[in-house]
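Quick one, T. Sequence first:
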Amino acid sequence: MQQPTISEYLKLLKRKFQLKIAAHVADVKQAAFNKRYYVLPDDKHKLITLCRDDVKILKKYKMMKKSVDHMDLMRECFYVTKVSLNDNPTLSPSERKKKQQEWIKYAKKHRV
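Structure tokens:
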């Protein structure tokens, strides 16, 4: 097995850090507004946090398909917050690890 180069390793660290920052922003927003937030890529392949109200606005302006529902967001997101402050975490540690690997694959594919 080939060792990753220093630049590949730094890119990997950058991608992990981007997801960690986006997840932290989603957690802060969730604590402030008590809504579920999803971390998704935008059209420029940057991570953004959206709540259900944001998704409704995107649908209204036809920036997102009307057929997108909550389950689609759960499946496609790289991180999701809990519903309320007293709720259990939505993602288990193994699911979080899987989502992190999905983000790394996505970022490599789109050269983020």
